[in-house]
Design goal:
Layout: H1 6-15, E1 55-59, E2 64-70, H2 75-92, H3 99-115, H4 129-138, H5 156-165, E3 170-171, H6 177-180
Antiparallel strand pairs: 1-2, 2-3
Length: about 200
């Protein structure tokens, strides 16, 4: 559904050169849920759902990662994040500043996105219950400290920007996708849209 938007398609065709690779069964971090075929019913889901199944990398021409969007993003949010990636790509080739200053600017830009969170994403960026249980037991950056006014589990897009802030211009082959994609469980039992299961494509008996 992300790529069904003309504005997004135009942005991709104008600003990026696209490629893809199949990670199913080839990467130890890849999800192992059922394959959702094009013929199955579509469904809007939360931001970053299926973060282990798909990762959308934004890289410089020489293969340095400036941003990564795991899982599903709706068209509007994807468009905003892709525009942000373009700015990071421009920063990568800014010769007027030192490498140290460039990396610091990279960190600042991502943290500003995290801390200046787009609150229009609040509902869509919440983890589902089973994923909340996973991140509490398997990660340390999703849970807020016990002190302060805001407590509990962070929103997914905030954590994504915080994780990216710690990875300035990392070459793609050295990007630690295993740690980056720790966003929830590897297998979902919910089979929406699969024939005989849930949704409009299910066969009624």
């Amino acid at each position: 559904m992300t790529l069904s938007n003309d504005k997004v398609i135009n942005q991709i065709n104008t600003a990026f050169v696209s490629g893809w690779q199949n990670i199913k069964g080839r990467k130890n971090y890849a999800g192992v849920s059922n394959t959702h075929m094009p013929s199955y019913a579509a469904k809007n889901i939360n931001t970053c759902s299926g973060g282990r199944n798909i990762q959308m990398y934004f890289m410089t021409p020489d293969g340095r990662v400036v941003h990564c969007l795991p899982g599903y993003w709706n068209a509007s949010d994807f468009y905003t994040q892709a525009g942000f990636a373009v700015k990071l790509g421009n920063l990568a080739f800014n010769k007027s500043i030192s490498n140290a200053d460039r990396n610091e600017k990279f960190l600042d830009m991502h943290l500003q996105k995290a801390h200046g969170h787009n609150y229009g994403l609040v509902e869509g960026a919440k983890l589902q219950g089973f994923d909340v249980k996973y991140v509490k037991n398997n990660t340390s950056d999703f849970t807020r400290g016990s002190k302060g006014f805001v407590k509990g589990v962070k929103l997914v897009d905030q954590v994504i920007h915080e994780r990216m802030a710690a990875r300035p211009f990392v070459p793609f082959e050295k990007f630690d996708a295993y740690e980056f994609t720790k966003l929830g469980i590897k297998r979902y039992k919910y089979d929406f849209g699969m024939p005989g299961k849930y949704g409009n494509a299910a066969k009624k008996k």
